[in-house]
Amino acid sequence: xxxxxGLHPNAIPAHARTPNGGNTNENVGHFLNWPLPEFPTTGTFxxxxxxxxxxxxxxxxxxxxxxxxxPSQQKIIKRFYDNRDQLDEQHLAENVTNLxxxxxxxxxxxxxxxxxxxxxxxxxxxxxxxxxxxxxxPAILAEVVKDLQSGxxxxxxxxxxxx
Length: 163
Prior knowledge:
Helix content is 52%, strand content 0%. It has seven helices and no strands.
C-alpha cells in the first residue's frame, strides 16, 4: 500500500497520518523522535542498496566498512592528497575574500574554524596561528597567504611512503 506521495506508509511519521494532517498542538515537535521507518524488502530502490550494505541508510560506520576502491579511484585519491597543500593554499586565499564579504557572525566563525585547520596543515607556526585567531583580522590572514605564496613559510614535508 502506498500513500498519496508514493512513499511507503511507515515512512511517514505517525502525526502526519492523523486525520487532521498532524496540525494539532500535541503533535508539534513529535516528529523529531519518531523511529526509523520500516521499508519493504522488495520492489524499491532501497533493496539494491541493502545488497551493498546491511544498513539501508548512509551511516558512516557502514560506509567505512566498504572501502574497496577501484584503481582509478585510488589514483584520484592519491592525486588529491599529493596536491592537498596547493588546494589548501588556494582555499585559504579564497577564505580571506570570504571573510571580507561575510555578514553574519556564525558564517565568520565557521570560516575562521576552517582557516585554523588549513593553516595547521600548511605548516604555519602555532604562535602565528594563535595571534591571527585572537585578532580575527582578514588583513593579517592575507599576509600569511602572501608569505605562503612567496615561500617565506615553509610547507611541511610530505609523509614518507611506507616500503
